[in-house]
Amino acid sequence: MVETRTFSFILSFLLVIIGSEAFAQHAINPIIHADVPDPSIIRVGDVYYMSSTTMHMSPGLPIMKSTDLVNWELLNYAYDVLDNGDDLALDNGKSMYGKGSWASSLRYHDGIYYVSTFSGNTNKTYIYTTDDIESGNWKATYFSPSLHDHSLFFEDDKVYMIWGGGEIKIVQLKQDLSGIKRETEQVLVAKAHAPIEKEIMLHAEGSQMFKIDGNYYLFNIAWPRGGMRTVLIHKADNLFGPYEGRVALEDKGVAQGGLIDTPDGDWFAYLFRDFGAVGRIPYLVPVIWGQGWPILGVDGQVPMELTQLPAQKTSIPSIVASDNFKRSENEPDLPLVWQWNHNPVEKLWSINRVEGLISFHTNRIDDSWLSARNTLTQRTFGPTSAAEVTLHLNQLKEGDVAGLGLLQKHYGWIGVKVKDGQKVLQLELIEQENPIIYEGKKIASDRIRFKAYGDFQDRKDLASFFYSEDDGETWTQLGPQLKMSYTLPHFMGYRFALFYYATSDPGGKVDFSDFRISQ
C-alpha cells in the first residue's frame, strides 16, 4: 500500500512538472500548440503534407510533412520572398504587417504538387508548382487580381479557383496558370453564411473544396455576432451546384479548414482555433459519415484526445529549435525554423560557422523596432515557452539598440542601448498603445545573455524578460511583465526575435550566439 501511494505521488508530481501530454497514449489537441493558421493538408500515399500562413515573414508559405497527422516537420518554403516593394522591405516608412501572403491551398494532381496563396498588398494571386515537394524547388506563377481565401480545384483537365467572402464564386484558370479564363466567373453560393440564421459578424470565407465519392463539399467559416467561429459545409453532386448548406461544427471557436482521410479509412477535419497571444493553433476533429454528409466532432464537440492517432513525440514542436549557429560545410546558413520579419537585406547579416555567431549590421537610422530590418524570428509555443541568447556588444556604436524581443504590435523587448558611450540595459513594452522604457544598469562587459519567457496557459498571455551577466547561471528580471495581446494589425502569434538597429550612427555590428528554446 505504501509503495502504491508513493508511486501515485511520484506520477502525479511528474504530470504536473512535465505535463500530461508526455504520458498520453494518444494524440492531444491542439495538434501543434503554436501559430499554424489556415492549414491546407493533402495525403499522397502514406505521407501527409501541410501548408500554412506566415504573413509578412520571409521565407514564407511553409510546407510541412507528417506520417501520422500528429508529428510534423518543416520541409521547405514555397518562396524566399513573396515579391518586391517598399512595404515588403520595410522601406520609406511602409510595412506589410498583417498582410503578405494569406491562406494557402495545397493540392496534388497528375504527379505535380501545387500550393497557392494571395496577397492584398500586392493584389496578386500566386501559384507555386513542383514535381518533388520534399526538395523544395518551387516554380512561381502569378496573376492579378488577388483571389481572397481561395481553393485550388482540379476537375478533369481543367483547373479552377473557388474564392470569396459571403458570396462564394468559382473561376476557371488558364492552362498555364497565368491568369483567369475570360467569362468563366460565376457564383457558387450566393449567401454562404445563411445556414447560421443569425446576425453575422464575419461573412463566410476560408473556402476549401473537396470531391469525395462523386459529391462536392465546400468548407467555409462564418462568425455570428455574439457567437463563435463556425464551420459551414455546402454539398452538391455537381461542381457548379446547386449547393445545400449546413452548420457542421460550433464548439470552442475551432473552425476553418477541410477534410483528410488516413490510409486506414479514418476521417478527420483539420481546423484551427484563435487562442490569444500564441496565435491560431491547429486541431484535428474526428469525422464520421451519415447520409452523404461529414459529421464533425463527438456529439458536436471537439475532443481533446484523439484515440485513433498516436501521441505527440515531444512537447516542444519541431517547427522551432535551439541553434548554436555552428554549421558544417553542407548545411544552409539558417535552419528552416528561422524566418525574417519582412524581406531581409542579405548584405547586412552573416554567419560565422566555426565560432557560432550570427552577425547583424546597420546601414540606416530607424526610430523603432517595428521599422528595423533584419529581425530574425521563431514562433512562440504553448502552454509556456522561453528563448534565450547571448549578445556580443563590442562593435556597437552610439545610439545602437540590440536585443531579444517578443514581436507583435504590442511588443516587448529586453536589450542594450548605447547612450553617451555607455551600454545601458533597457526594457521596452507597449502599454496602452504607447512604448514605455524601463532602464536598467550600465553594462561594463561586452557580453550579456537575455531571456524572454511567455506564459500562454489558459490565455494568461504574460511575458517576462531577464538578463544574465554570467552566461545564464543566474537571472535577474528587468521591469514588469508584458500583457501580450493578439492584434489584427499584425495578425500573427507572438514571435521570439533577435534584432538590431541604429538610432543615430549607422555602420555598427552585433553578434548573437547560443540561441536556446525551452518550455
From TrEMBL:
<dbReference type="Pfam" id="PF17851">
    <property type="entry name" value="GH43_C2"/>
</dbReference>
<feature type="domain" description="Beta-xylosidase C-terminal Concanavalin A-like">
    <location>
        <begin position="330"/>
        <end position="517"/>
    </location>
</feature>
<feature type="active site" description="Proton donor">
    <location>
        <position position="205"/>
    </location>
</feature>
<keyword id="KW-0378">Hydrolase</keyword>
<dbReference type="InterPro" id="IPR041542">
    <property type="entry name" value="GH43_C2"/>
</dbReference>
<keyword id="KW-0326">Glycosidase</keyword>
<dbReference type="GO" id="GO:0004553">
    <property type="term" value="F:hydrolase activity, hydrolyzing O-glycosyl compounds"/>
</dbReference>
<dbReference type="InterPro" id="IPR013320">
    <property type="entry name" value="ConA-like_dom_sf"/>
</dbReference>
<dbReference type="InterPro" id="IPR023296">
    <property type="entry name" value="Glyco_hydro_beta-prop_sf"/>
</dbReference>
<protein>
    <submittedName>
        <fullName>Glycosyl hydrolase</fullName>
    </submittedName>
</protein>
<feature type="active site" description="Proton acceptor">
    <location>
        <position position="38"/>
    </location>
</feature>
<comment type="similarity">
    <text>Belongs to the glycosyl hydrolase 43 family.</text>
</comment>
<feature type="site" description="Important for catalytic activity, responsible for pKa modulation of the active site Glu and correct orientation of both the proton donor and substrate">
    <location>
        <position position="149"/>
    </location>
</feature>
<dbReference type="Pfam" id="PF04616">
    <property type="entry name" value="Glyco_hydro_43"/>
</dbReference>
<dbReference type="GO" id="GO:0005975">
    <property type="term" value="P:carbohydrate metabolic process"/>
</dbReference>
<dbReference type="InterPro" id="IPR006710">
    <property type="entry name" value="Glyco_hydro_43"/>
</dbReference>
<dbReference type="InterPro" id="IPR051795">
    <property type="entry name" value="Glycosyl_Hydrlase_43"/>
</dbReference>
